[in-house]
Amino acid sequence: MDPDYFRSYDMCWGTLGTVRPSSIFHPDRDAIEIQAALEKKVFNVILQDLSAGVKKALSGELQSLLLELLMPPLQYEAHRLQQAMAGIGTDEETLLEILCTRSGKRLREISAVYQQLFKKDLEKELKGETSGDFAKLVLALLNKEDVAGVVRRDVETLFASLNAKKADPGPWIDILTSRDLSHLEKVLMGLELESGLMVDQAVEKRFTGDVQLGLSILVQCIEGPYVYLAKRLTTMKAPIVQGIMVSHCEEDLLCIRAAFNKLTGTSLYTTLQNKFKGDYLHALLAICRSED
């Protein structure tokens, strides 16, 4: 791991992130360097907003990446949710990624920022983009909370829903969005012992459509959110890679890097080099920070 990580450890707001305050940070000098780089294409950039300067100096994937890095974390998550619902069709997996990996408290903060940015209620927007059992799941995730429960009772309830003539997603939605993580880990373990199946296998076997996708991702995130995010990264699709890396670079990208390495046998740093190129690659590598 690169030595700058340890030098910046005490300054870091989340030591599992890859983007952190630097012990050798010189804002005045760095601002001059950024200005000089942009002035190659932008006239008198010092008088402009940095975002506007980036938009005029750059284009394509690199522009998109740098503009997203300029967004505060909550604003960026709100932006990703809005983009997932924009235009024709809905990007269900991006919605689920954010809703399943963020705490109830974080989602309430994101909802407030969404209202400020887009003058729209996030819950109403999600209602308009989803339907049926999937809508119930998405809204329950947005409003998730920790309610006391009994592990054995929850296991029995989920097992009964699986064995019904038609599997009922209702109990799964209610329980998996309203218990704390340690409780849910015990519930899933108990359910596997009771059913003789891995939980994701049971979900795939008994449910269909969007609600199957949603419950499957939710189960994966309960069992190991970093493994789920690492699996998403293996697609090496630019929007997915960019979204996850920007979202988590200040918080826990090191954990995702470790999960990716364990899952694939190759570091994220090396995999990025095999897939992307040019300045966009250099920017992604700077966010990734180093080899594992």
TrEMBL record:
<dbReference type="GO" id="GO:0005544">
    <property type="term" value="F:calcium-dependent phospholipid binding"/>
</dbReference>
<dbReference type="GO" id="GO:0005886">
    <property type="term" value="C:plasma membrane"/>
</dbReference>
<dbReference type="GO" id="GO:0012506">
    <property type="term" value="C:vesicle membrane"/>
</dbReference>
<protein>
    <submittedName>
        <fullName>Annexin A14</fullName>
    </submittedName>
</protein>
<dbReference type="GO" id="GO:0001786">
    <property type="term" value="F:phosphatidylserine binding"/>
</dbReference>
<dbReference type="InterPro" id="IPR001464">
    <property type="entry name" value="Annexin"/>
</dbReference>
<comment type="similarity">
    <text>Belongs to the annexin family.</text>
</comment>
<dbReference type="GO" id="GO:0005737">
    <property type="term" value="C:cytoplasm"/>
</dbReference>
<dbReference type="GO" id="GO:0005509">
    <property type="term" value="F:calcium ion binding"/>
</dbReference>
<keyword id="KW-0677">Repeat</keyword>
<keyword id="KW-0041">Annexin</keyword>
<dbReference type="Pfam" id="PF00191">
    <property type="entry name" value="Annexin"/>
</dbReference>
<dbReference type="InterPro" id="IPR037104">
    <property type="entry name" value="Annexin_sf"/>
</dbReference>
<dbReference type="InterPro" id="IPR018502">
    <property type="entry name" value="Annexin_repeat"/>
</dbReference>
<dbReference type="GO" id="GO:0005634">
    <property type="term" value="C:nucleus"/>
</dbReference>
